[in-house]
User: Which sequence fits this backbone?
């Protein structure tokens, strides 16, 4: 015979949501800037930045971001129990003065 729970499924879900919200408010956000300058763009040819989002991961950072001796991971938040809720990215695209009517299309996707 199953024991009857004091909370309904909906109440359990709401309590979990409130607890996660409070935990996320207490944790200090980590942020950093990654710049890759002077990427040559060619007409109607895609530029694929491989593992762009994989460069900034959730989890523990050992402080050594070199690829030879460290893990190479730059952590957004220190700790492995906090969820990444959003990420803000800014792109600065500029072109030469003799090409004023250029259009750019940015597509960002994350395939885990």
Assistant:
């Amino acid at each position: 015979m199953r024991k009857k729970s004091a909370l309904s499924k909906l109440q359990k879900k709401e309590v979990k949501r409130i607890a996660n919200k409070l935990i996320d408010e207490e944790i200090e956000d980590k942020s950093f800037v990654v710049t890759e300058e002077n990427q040559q763009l060619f007409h109607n040819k895609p530029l694929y930045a491989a593992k762009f989002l994989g460069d900034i991961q959730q989890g523990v950072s050992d402080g050594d971001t070199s690829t030879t001796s460290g893990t190479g991971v730059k952590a957004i938040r220190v700790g492995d129990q906090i969820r990444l809720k959003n990420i803000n990215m800014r792109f600065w695209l500029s072109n030469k003065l003799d090409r004023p009517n250029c259009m750019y299309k940015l597509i960002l996707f994350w395939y885990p």
